Structure formats: structure tokens, C-alpha cells
């Protein structure tokens, strides 16, 4: 390795590490922005939140790496161009491709690491993240009593307190409404009390003082009894075991999701689905054709030699007395065949859709990895053309090209999922767009193009205005 290679690699490593963590942070924050309403008020512990952030960050690494490579390559070559180091390298007779070679190798190694990460680590992180997200979304809100507001999250109860002291334990003007069934309602009214968590850590305990308990007793077909009971002290407990995230769902619930599988497991699943689809044709032959015996002799008795036989119409040879019964049997047979075909077609469509989902994940593991190399082919020549370092101009171009990559890959994936496009054209659609752009930018950079130079356009319009005068 020559000193020039070490120079460009050192110039690349720093921006790459910084942009990678910034990109990962932005992607994680974007995720939490979408699900913030599902996290608020659930009583989640700090450890649980950080655990989820760790799993979610790990599952987003394959998407953050291509953007980090694009932005860091733009910054690296932009800084070298801004400081005229690229000019010095070219004046020494070293071509841009030779100067890009060490970083191309580095981006290829990053692509290989990204593939290993996507294939072996990301499925586990995605499985953990998906399971935890489901538990958090469907968890009930944490117990939080507010002054003057009825709290009805406990099944069968509605609680209202007039005032809470600063320590949140002493409460005043308490109303507890309990509904046992549609006809019987119970009330507890107390002037003050103490609210605390019971010793078993699963119950919320109210020690009420100076109040009344109102209760209705009876059956739908009998008179209702009304009971009023005064008390100086009364203890009421509420079960809080269903609140928060008390029990975690087993990871095995989502283990068959396509995103949670490696390429080897995807290959096995794809082969199994293809075998199921192949058996659907055999099922049609066994369920449909067996009900039509004439299908075995479709070509017989149509021709004798070269002279067609003279035939009478079916209505001509069918007696009038049997026409009605024959029509009914034919209609029943057609209805049976139609139902059987629709059932087989529904199974075939569902299996084909599942097959496409597994194939999409198989291709995605390759496309997300190779995107590091493709976006480097855009970022490096583009940085040498614009010759601007820092996070300003490179960030604008990086976001623009990454959005082009993201939207084209998302659109191709959508068409592949719907079956409108083939799997290869759909999943590699973004590469069909970006590779020609990378080749074009590399060609322009090798010939010192001014296509992204602001001064070039300023001079051009000045000359244009001068000629008009």
C-alpha cells in the first residue's frame, strides 16, 4: 500500500464513522417519530427503552451504511478537491480512477461486512425489535390518576379524585364507580384516603376514610335491593398486573417472518413454497378432471380418416322428459367445479404472494449490501466535481441521490410484490438507474467537467448577456 492510498483512506475513515452514526441516529429518530404515540403513557422502564433502541438501531444498520458511504465519499473527495490536493495528484500523472481505487476496495469490504451483518445479525435484531414493538403497542397505558378526571382503564371500574397532595399518596374527594353487570351499579364515596402500591407490587391499594358505600342487589325479574353502608376506614384493591409490559411475547411467534430469516433459510422456504405451488396443479387434476371423465378422450371419435362424422345436436337426441334433470345436474356440476377452481386459485394466489415476499427479502440482502459500492461510485466522482467539503453542499447532493435510490428501490419492490414486474427487474431497478449515473459522473470527473460548478454557469450567462448587447 502506497502513501497516497493511506492518505485517501485516512481522509475517508473519519467522515465515514461520523456520518454513519449521524445517519443511524436520524433513522432511529424517524422511527420513534412514527411510533411516539404508542410509547407515551405505557410506564416503560428506561432499561426496556434502551433495549428496544439497541435492537432497532441494529436492524437499521444495513440502511444506514449506504447513505454513510455516499456522504463520506462526497465529503472526502470534496475536501481533497477544495484543498487542491486532487489537482496535485492529477498533475503528478495519477488518474482519478487510480486515486479512487483504495476507497473502492474499502467500500467493497464494507459491502461484504454489510452482507454478513444483513444475513446473520439483522434477522435476530429485527425479530427482537418486532416482538418488543408488538408488546409495547398493545400494552395498556400505565396507571395515572389525574385530578377531576374519571380514569376508566381498569376493566369494570371508573375512578375520580378531586385532589392529590404533592406526595401523590394522600388523595381527597374520591369517587369509585363499579359496574358488575348491566343492572347493578356500586359506588364508593370518601372524603380522603391514601393511595399506594401494595406489598405484592401487583395491586394498587386505596385506604379510604370517612365515606359511604352504595350497592345494588337483585335479579332482572325481581325487585332491586339498595344498600348504603357508612365507614370510617375502607380498603379497596385493584389488580394492576395487566398494565404496562409485564409479560414478553416469545420470539418464536415471528420466527417465520421473511425478514427474520437468513439466505439459507430463505432458500429452504422458497423451495418449499414452490413445491406447494406445484402440488396445486396435481390437485386440480385430481379434484377437477376426475369429475369430467370425457376429458380423457377429447380427441377420439372426432374424425374417421379425413371425413368428419355427421353429428346431431345434443338437444335433438335428448328426450324432453330428461332435459330438466340433465340441466340441473349440469348446473350442479358446473357450480362444484367453479367452487373447487376458485378455492385452488385462492390458495395459488396466496402462496404466490408469500413466495414473492420471501424472494424479495432474498434479493434485498444483496441489494442493500451492494448499494454501498454503487453509491460510492456516485459519491466519489461527484465530490471531485463539486469540490466542496464539510456537511453543506455534500449533504444536499447525498440526500438527493439517496432519495433517488430509496424511492426507486421502494417502487421496484412494490411492483415486484404485486407481481407486475419480475423479481430481478423490480428488486434491481434502483441499480439500473444509479449505475449509469455513476458511470456518467466518473467520466465527467475524469475530464474535469464543470457540470456542477456554479462559476461555470455564472460565466456562461455573463457571456450570453454580453452577446445580446
Automatic annotation (TrEMBL):
Query: What species is this protein from?
Result: Flavisolibacter ginsenosidimutans
The record gives the membrane topology as: Multi-pass membrane protein
Which cellular components does GO assign to this protein?
A: ATP-binding cassette (ABC) transporter complex
Q: What is this protein called?
A: YjgP/YjgQ family permease
* Record bears the keyword Transmembrane: yes
What keywords does the record list, in alphabetical order? Answer: Cell membrane, Membrane, Transmembrane, Transmembrane helix
**Alphabetical list of PANTHER family matching this protein:** SLR0882 PROTEIN-RELATED, YJGP_YJGQ FAMILY PERMEASE
| Annotated TM spans | 12-33, 60-80, 100-122, 366-386, 392-409, 421-443
The record's annotation in InterPro entries points to: LptG/LptF_permease
A Gene Ontology BP annotation from the UniProt entry = lipopolysaccharide transport
Q: Can you tell which superkingdom this protein's organism belongs to?
A: Bacteria
Cellular compartment(s)? Cell membrane
